[in-house]
Amino acid sequence: MNDPTTPSERYLQGMATRRAVLGDSHVDRAQQGVTDFDRPFQELITEAAWGHVWSRPTLSWRERSIVTIALLAALGQDDEVAMHVRATRNTGATRDDICEALLHVAIYAGVPAANHAIKIAKQVFEQMDAEQAA
After folding, report:
1. Residue 17 belongs to what domain range?
2. Full-prediction pTM beyond 0.85?
3. Of 1, 43, 44, 96, which has the fewest Cβ atoms less than 10 A away?
4. Poorest-confidence range of 1-15, 42-56, 68-82, 97-111?
5. Could you report the per-residue pLDDT of 10-34, keeping only the tens digit for each?
6. In this structure, are 79 and 37 located in the same domain?
7. Cα separation, 85 vs 88, whole angstroms
8. Cβ(74)–Cβ(102) under 8 Å?
């Protein structure tokens, strides 16, 4: 974004997609914590990840969600795995979808990575179930 006072169309599309996938409360918390130091990074991920990639029409949000969780699990990105598992309530990816993705992680990225991601997913699903019951 060249002019920080005028968001680009890609940024606006990215922010809309980001909010739809992750939820307003998550994005609001992230935005409240932005400083001058990390503002360029936040703009980058909003435009690139959410505006360029997640907003493309070829794959559904469900499919992108499955791929994203598998990649994050393979890379050992625990916080991001949890965030994207939580986002499945908005993407349409099911628990069975995530189970299948993590089986692929076990074969292609290693059992320890999948095992740890399964532990994280189970914790997040328990939290989501408790929130829904309340």
Report:
1. 1-58
2. yes
3. 96
4. 1-15
5. 999 999 999 999 999 999 999 999 9
6. no
7. 5
8. no
Domain match, 26 and 72 both: no
DSSP the chain: --STTS--HHHHHHHHHHHHHH-HHHHHHHHHT--TTTHHHHHHHIIIIIIIITT-SSS-HHHHHHHHHHHHHHHT-HHHHHHHHHHHHHH---HHHHHHHHHHHHHHH-HHHHHHHHHHHHHHHHHHHHHHH-
Q: What's the total number of domains in the chain?
A: 2
Looking at residue 6, what is its pLDDT? 86
Mean of all residue pLDDT scores within the chain: 95
Share of the chain above pLDDT 90, in %: 95
Query: What's the mean pLDDT in 85-102?
Result: 98
| Same domain for 132 and 104 | yes
Residue type at position 63: E
